[in-house]
Model the fold of this input.
Amino acid sequence: MEKIQTKKMWIEKYGLKKYGLKSWRERKKDKRWKGYQRERSIVCCMLLVGCSILFGGCSREEKQVFTISMMAEYFPSYEMADIGADSWLRSVEEETNKELQIELVPTLEYVSTVERMIRNDRLPMVLTANETILAKESFLAYLRAGGFWELDDYLDDYPQLKAFIGEEIWENAKMQGHIYGIPRLRIRPRYAAYYRKDWADTLGILPPRNLEEIYQMLKAFTLNDPDGNGIADTVGMADSWRNWGAREWNGIQNITTALGGPNGWAYDAEKGQMIPDFSTETYMQTLRWFRQCYREGVLDHTFSFLTAVQRQEMFISGQAGMIFGVIDDAPELEDRMRQINPQAEVAILPAIEAGNGGELRVNSSAGYNGLIMFNRFGNGGIKDETKLREILSFYDTLCGEKGQEILLFGREGEFHTLDEQGNKVLIYQEGNNRSLLSSAAGSYVQLMPTPPYIRTPVDSLLQREVYDCIEAREPHLVNDASYGVYSETYAALSDRLNKRIQKASIRFIMGEITESDYWNEYQIWYEEGGKAVIEEYTEGYKEKRGISE
Done:
């Protein structure tokens, strides 16, 4: 099978650098490049003729190998090593008896590339669609026109794939009532807070379990010199409320859900309608807690404009003692922190208790990050059900035990070894904390079905704690009822509507407006489109759940 290369690797190996050219436009005009193309064509023809002469043509089995064209984002942080990349993909092809033609597009160009391909009917068979693409009106129009295959009626025929994703995630990933792609799995209890355990130990603070205990810890981190340098240079918590999307992880949804409120949106059976969290008294209770933290100086006063990265840097550098965030980021942050202070230690904040003896409630992510979708239109589309089933069988195979072993560990001796107990241990690059398989898979892994996490024998103490927390919280998850439900009004007005609530929430925390002022802002939100969003979400939720009027 032909080697699959990224565009970047292909450029470096086959031409631009060799001929001293800087761009694809330039190479089209260069005579040396045209000569190279002719030479390449001649060589390819000679190889084909040679194959025919020596072996009497290609085997019947090779002719029947099904080719899947694919496209995904290319992330520079997923820089792929030359060594092993082809071998890993070849093992995937051999296990599935499919040939893969993969194009990787730089992440900053991906959305515009997909939109351009939609306009020109040039999409490949399979592509990844991130959250930005899934919200684009041009993409949704293409979907409504029948541009992507609906998978609802096929999944029962592919039991490994269906079970691998799980019933609730399939439901969450529905668009306009149908399943249009394979969800790329993500940890569900993903949002939490982590704090400086070494500071807490120094000050004699036990792991806090409710808002009052968290507040007292943050106050001690601010006032009691937890780093012991004799300088008042620490603050309890750094946070980021710069954009609406941050609310999933910046604490507002974590706490509102824990106290009994919605995780984003909830269906109120008594009222027979959907309600947003920011319309509830529980949300206001959470805002009051943040307001107290701000007023007492235990919440850094830059929270309204601090970026997500900046709030991490405050934590890493020892300026802040706690941040809300994504739970699986904690081990990496601790590693970076220890480069500055080898004695630093991070712990995961326990799931927040409401304080009324009720059940734990943990805000859940949708359980996926984008979709792997199957195009129907254009020359590159999947024209009939037979071809669709070939591709679904590819994914079904990869969801099986052997397929997962190849995706996660690769071939023994090349990407992993066995320890004395027979456990697979990935091989790491010298002077790098990245495994050879991770480098080989690179951005290609976005197109493959992989679990949200996997334990390994070499996990650090904190990494094991993260996984323990994930598994302990899974029975207490609260889903966002708006997952898989569509609102045309929200799609059109989301930016304006979100900004109104975001601004009102921040101003209340900073003491610039009263509770009455906040509820006035909510009323404006309701009148300027929020009412229609509620009605459309309610209609979509009832249809999805089969609730009659």
User: Anything to note?
Assistant: Residues 1-62 have pLDDT under 50 and may be disordered.
